[in-house]
């Protein structure tokens, strides 16, 4: 009895002495419950689910999993990361997550050096996916299913009305313990032209659908149009062509006579935004989900069309779903409808329809933050898949979004952009006109935009003293981000962790009055996703006592060639976490040491924090000296980019092989390095250098920043490519674009030799733009 009381008190002390960790798991998805310990031998790991009767989830001892006493409900659904046990990670992977898995878990570790218990609160999330709304006689019914936790349903009208809304709501739970909700609203005969909105929400997400009953006056505007398609229309005409025609006619004929000219302009502007060609080129056709009614008419099923208007109509992103009925063989009769101007909100507004709608009726739906289908890699808060086209010129700095289908925006679906540089060459700027996911090609940041926005961002130093006060350390660069329109809905910050769900990562929001730590909304293999409300500094941090898990890393090489008559050359070797910005590294190195050449090679490897590594070379003789002989990998190197090793060469070498080995002499990275052509320009075709400069002239003028331009002028003067008078003439030009135009035209007219030298200097100063222009 005394022993039992002691054990209960011991467990209670453990419970209150260390706060629980909250973990949100998606229904039927994979989830990882974090747990760590101080490495020791003879480790015993026990995972328990605290319920009315405590359930043994997983146990490990004698260097193997023990499933003999595992509860049947967890059979074949649990696993540990065996390769990480030696590094103090006992995190549990749980697959096929069920509602019954919700609750409090204990991770109990016993080893030769002590015991430890950690507690995890698991919450299950099955977000609202679809909201269905339809009219039955004098009632509107709104419903959704497959939701957890229990949802709430509310009705509202636009514009607000004094009418007392009469409705009844029922909630049911199925055998999987998922909720379905349905509400029926009685229509009033005096509510013409009201927009009824039904919102279904959980603590983590919400979706809305709306229904509008148009007045008799609006219903008098009709159009019947015959469309001959040669044979059966559905099998011959692509769905997107039908949708384009329908949208065009709807937009053209909706508004009353006094607005016809304005409608024409809106229609033409909308058609210019429809990406029909790109959609055909990418072989991403729309699904043709159609069925025949009892009367033989062909109708469109729900979610057939989602055409993203983007900035084309009102400056907001709108995805219109059309229901086309009355399609009889070769004749298509389309009803005209009024486009309802939705009130501005922070949500992406969409307009889907049900299978068969009464005449002159629109059905809208929109998703709030957090909505995502289960069983797929969906980014919350949006339902549009972006175009896969990338920016191809420095001047094109406004990515736009293509037409899309609902619930199909994959994790990897984004538009990559090359940002503009600020005047001081240390910041970046990005502009977009439509909602979507946009990834910066320089920093790896991904912006989930709700609408048009102008985002300015740059990397800034960490205040490490501030982090130490909270027992944190950097796990990524600190980005200072600003957006005047406040249109960034979510921010994806790149991480370099191989096991990112170990539970030790957070995002620091650094403000003038201190710092707050944000639990990630989602962690992917490459990014931490957070919802943001304000702007300032954002950066990934980790606990000071987190286990030293291996990280994705970079080995970067910077070469300082010999200066005559000195024949000694130096190769600086940096070991950095992968989520650094290479451009920031190069810019910082240029400030620290001046001229050196970045050697492009495959830099990727996996390194263990605080582990000692050695660097060796081949050939290895008295003419080659490596200093120091060994060095530790510091995973929080995000501010000062100093070399871990320096290779001194007393003789000129064309090639050298480098070997990076860990403490057990295992090679973790080895490369053959070409020194003779380090920093030189690669051949990009048979065109002579002055022709290459002519080919990229406009992009050079638009994309070259002021600081890079001034440094380029200095180099051109030093190497006598430009004369003193030409340099003075360039300094007299104050406008950056005009100065860039003067430089490239002056050098280009001097011939191939001068053009070649300019390209070499330019690629040293701005390798990203140089690579973008295909000069490297």
Automatic annotation (TrEMBL):
Matches recorded under InterPro entries: BTN3A2-like_Ig-C (IPR053896), CARD (IPR001315), DEATH-like_dom_sf (IPR011029), FIIND_dom (IPR025307), Ig-like_dom (IPR007110), Ig-like_dom_sf (IPR036179), Ig-like_fold (IPR013783), Ig_V-set (IPR013106)
Chain positions covered by the region annotation Disordered: 362-382
Domain FIIND: 407-688
Span of the signal peptide: 1-19
Residues annotated as domain Ig-like: 33-125, 134-215
Entry membrane topology: Single-pass type I membrane protein
Superkingdom of the source species: Eukaryota
GO cellular component: cytosol; external side of plasma membrane
Protein name stated in the entry: Ig-like domain-containing protein
UniProt source species: Amphiprion ocellaris (Clown anemonefish)
């Amino acid at each position: 009895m005394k022993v039992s009381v002691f054990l209960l008190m011991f467990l209670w002390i453990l419970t209150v002495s260390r706060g629980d960790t909250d973990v949100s798991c998606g229904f039927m998805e994979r989830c990882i419950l974090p747990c760590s310990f101080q490495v020791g031998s003879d480790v015993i790991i026990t995972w328990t689910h605290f319920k009315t009767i405590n359930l043994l989830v997983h146990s490990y001892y004698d260097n193997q999993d023990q499933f003999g006493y595992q509860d049947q409900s967890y059979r074949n659904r649990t696993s540990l990361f065996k390769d990480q046990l030696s590094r103090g990670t006992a995190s549990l992977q749980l697959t096929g997550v069920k509602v019954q898995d919700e609750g409090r878990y204990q991770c109990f570790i016993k080893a030769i050096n002590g015991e430890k218990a950690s507690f995890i609160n698991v919450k299950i999330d099955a977000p609202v996916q679809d909201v269905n709304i339809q009219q039955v006689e004098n009632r509107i019914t709104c419903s959704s299913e497959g939701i957890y936790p229990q949802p709430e349903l509310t009705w509202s009208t636009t514009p607000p009305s004094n009418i007392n809304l009469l409705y009844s709501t029922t909630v049911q739970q199925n055998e999987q313990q998922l909720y379905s909700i349905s509400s029926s609203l009685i229509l009033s005969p005096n509510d013409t032209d009201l927009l009824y909105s039904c919102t279904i929400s959980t603590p983590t997400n919400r979706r809305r659908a709306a229904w509008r009953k148009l007045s008799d006056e609006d219903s008098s505007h009709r159009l019947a149009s015959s469309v001959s398609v040669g044979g059966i229309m559905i099998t011959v005409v692509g769905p997107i062509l039908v949708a384009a025609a329908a949208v065009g006619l709807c937009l053209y004929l909706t508004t009353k006579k006094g607005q016809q000219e304005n409608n024409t302009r809106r229609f033409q502007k909308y058609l210019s935004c429809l990406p029909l060609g790109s959609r055909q080129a990418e072989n991403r056709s729309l699904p043709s989900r159609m069925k025949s009614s009892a009367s033989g008419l062909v109708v469109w099923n729900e979610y057939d069309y989602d055409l993203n208007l983007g900035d084309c109509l009102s400056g907001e992103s709108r995805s219109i779903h059309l229901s086309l009925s009355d399609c009889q063989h070769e004749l298509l009769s389309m009803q005209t409808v009024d486009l309802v101007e939705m009130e501005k909100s922070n949500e992406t507004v969409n307009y889907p329809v049900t299978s068969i709608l009464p005449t002159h009726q629109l059905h809208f739906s929109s998703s709030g933050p957090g909505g995502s289908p289960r069983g797929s890699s969906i980014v919350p808060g949006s339902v549009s898949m972006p175009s896969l086209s990338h920016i191809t010129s420095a001047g094109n700095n406004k990515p736009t979004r293509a037409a899309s289908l609902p619930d199909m925006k994959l994790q990897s679906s984004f538009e990559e952009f090359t940002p503009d540089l600020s005047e001081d060459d240390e910041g970046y700027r990005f502009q977009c006109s439509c909602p979507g996911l946009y990834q910066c090609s320089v920093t790896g940041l991904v912006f989930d935009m709700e609408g048009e926005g102008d985002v300015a961002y740059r990397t800034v130093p960490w205040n490490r003293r501030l982090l130490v006060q909270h027992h944190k350390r950097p796990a990524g660069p600190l980005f200072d981000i600003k957006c005047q329109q406040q249109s960034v809905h979510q921010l994806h910050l790149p991480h370099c962790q191989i096991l990112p769900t170990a539970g030790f990562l957070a995002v620091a929001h650094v403000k003038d009055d201190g710092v707050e730590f944000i639990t990630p909304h989602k962690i992917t293999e490459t990014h931490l996703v957070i919802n943001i409300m304000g702007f300032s500094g954002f950066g990934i941090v980790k606990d000071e006592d987190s286990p030293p898990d291996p990280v994705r890393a970079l080995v970067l090489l910077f070469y300082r060639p010999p200066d005559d008559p000195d024949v000694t050359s130096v190769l600086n070797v940096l070991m950095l976490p992968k989520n650094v910005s290479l451009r920031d590294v190069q810019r910082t190195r240029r400030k620290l040491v001046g001229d050196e050449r970045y050697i492009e090679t495959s830099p990727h490897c996996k390194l263990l924090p605080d582990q000692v590594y050695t660097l060796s070379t081949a050939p290895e003789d008295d003419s080659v000296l490596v200093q120091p002989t060994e060095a530790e990998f510091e995973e929080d190197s995000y501010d000062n980019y100093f070399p871990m090793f320096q290779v001194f060469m007393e003789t000129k070498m064309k090639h050298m092989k480098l070997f990076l080995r860990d403490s057990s002499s295992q090679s973790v990275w080895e490369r053959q390095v070409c020194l003779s052509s380090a920093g030189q320009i690669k051949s990009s075709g048979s065109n002579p250098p002055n022709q290459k400069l002519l080919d990229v002239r406009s992009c050079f003028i638009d994309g070259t920043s002021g600081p890079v331009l001034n440094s380029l002028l200095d180099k051109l003067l030093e190497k006598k490519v430009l004369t003193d008078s030409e340099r003075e003439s360039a300094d007299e030009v104050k406008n950056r674009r005009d100065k860039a135009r003067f430089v490239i035209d002056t050098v280009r007219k001097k011939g191939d030799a001068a053009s070649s030298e300019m390209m070499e200097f330019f690629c040293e100063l701005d390798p990203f733009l140089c690579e973008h222009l295909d000069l490297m």
